[in-house]
Amino acid sequence: xxxxxxxxxxxxxxxxxxxxxxxxxxxxxxxxxxxxxxxxxxxxxxxxxxxxxxxxxxxxxxxxxxxxxxxxxxxxxxxxxxxxxxxxxxxxxxxxxxxxxxxxxxxxxx
Length: 110
Known about the structure:
Structural class: alpha/beta
Low-confidence stretches: none
Largest sheet: 5 strands, mixed
Number of helices: 4
Mean pLDDT: 94
Number of strands: 5
Helix content: 25-40%
Strand order of the largest sheet: 3-4-2-1-5
Oligomer: single chain
Strand content: 25-35%
């Protein structure tokens, strides 16, 4: 089984939010077939601003639908140390960016 780390944005289409947005839908379009093919997926998802309630914790780790998601507030999504910690713990075989907005955090990995 290949371990695939995906960078994207959230909310994902099945989240209980008032609206869905293209970047979250796009991330799910990448994730779903990869999971269905039997791979181990972790998503590092930056939150689109003003979607989640203000009391939402800056980081949430969610295991659901066969994969792990790290929902990160913008400050953590762009924190190279936090991104590196998640990467190193998961130890992926490959990395995929599901939107151009996810490339800076991925590019900061060492």
